[in-house]
Amino acid sequence: MSEKSTSEGETSGGSSSGTTENKKRGKARVGRTSLILWHTHQNDASAVQRLLEEDTKLVNARDYDSRTPLHVAALQGWIDVARCLIDHGADVNAQDRWKNTPLADAEGAKKYLMIEFLKSYGGLSYGQNGSHNEPKPVLPPLSNKGDWEIDPAELDFSTSSIIGKGSFGEILRANWRGTPVAVKRILPSLSEDRLVAQDFRHEVTLLLKLRHPNIVQFLGAVTEKKPSMLVTEFLRGGDLHQYLKEKGAVTPATAISFALDIARGMAYLHKEPNVIIHRDLKPRNILLVNSSADHLKVGDFGLSKLINVKHANDIYKLTGETGSYRYMAPEVFKHRKYDKKVDVFSFAMIIYEILEGEPPLAQLEPYEAAKYVADGHRPMFRAKGCIPELKELIDQCWSADVNKRPSFLDILKRLERTKESISSDHHWHLFST
Prior knowledge:
Layout: H1 3-13, H2 16-41, H3 45-54, H4 69-76, H5 79-87, H6 102-108, H7 112-120, E1 155-165, E2 169-176, E3 179-186, H8 194-207, E4 218-222, E5 229-233, H9 240-247, H10 252-269, E6 274-277, E7 286-288, E8 296-298, E9 305-308, H11 330-333, H12 341-356, H13 366-374, E10 383-384, H14 388-397, H15 408-421, E11 429-430
Keywords: ANK repeat, ATP-binding, Kinase, Nucleotide-binding, Repeat, Serine/threonine-protein kinase, Transferase
Catalytic activity: L-threonyl-[protein] + ATP = O-phospho-L-threonyl-[protein] + ADP + H(+); L-seryl-[protein] + ATP = O-phospho-L-seryl-[protein] + ADP + H(+)
Domain Protein kinase: 157-429
């Protein structure tokens, strides 16, 4: 809310009631700005349409980095949302705090259809020509397909069920040679999309390199026939998000056991010289081997990044808003350069959720939670009797200073020491705030 509108409200109202009303409207505007940015990011054109019908000024709403909804749509490549915004008068050449236009963001993210779309409406490429650019490394040739190429005729979907969905496909439970498996299948409508195919190949290339007991096992893929499919082991325990939703907070012994499994998988991914940054570490991507939850594995590498580091002190920085808002490191949300320590931040948020039994900042929408964290705030601990060593570790892992966040190897050492110092009958006691 501008100072001008506030002073006008005080003059015309002649009392503090006018000021109060203006403040209320200002807060409402902030909330609705978050809403339209969130629905834009989620590619929900109908929700964006409804908001704009209620308040047309939202079409050029800005977040604290001066990004408009059209910037968000351009970066993600959401054509339908962008068309809705432009139809309602969006400024196609609005500039954010980095002086980037939506077209510059689309070019940086290599959203080719979006680039042509914005150009057709007079979009110009101002600014840094894509400060969010994350060029994918040149991928090496895939290894001998005879080792892992699966004939789709071997996949039995007769009793299949959908266990997950994403922007580009769905994950189904199926059977392969008599064994239950999880199959990520690209949607038929996107089977010819060049960028989708590139992302699919990127994920296959990563999974081919991974062999670890705390990483979901890659079994093979269908690449020679359509639709493309990626096949991994099926874990009967479901994901950590659903487990915590049903069970709530766990004992300290279980919390440390969960943390150790996740940290082991992540320490393996972060091992140099071939560092793999997950970039979307969250409870939904942590899978339980069975219903007893005695073993966890890290999965879903659709957003992961493989970086080759020749020397331990090499700098490998990325930019771009990638991942899930609620678990997102502040430097990612702010579109600043980042490295593998973003996974350490997400790890801290996950361990907090394991201890508390609910997502961090559950009272806020995901986008608002990310902004709250980026502004320097952190979730509050409610658990009584919280082990000081564990709380101290979490505080360091979600530090705003990236250099203060420990590596996963250091995290493992500290967790092992903490595990030895507690007894299995120690329980959390919650109190209401």
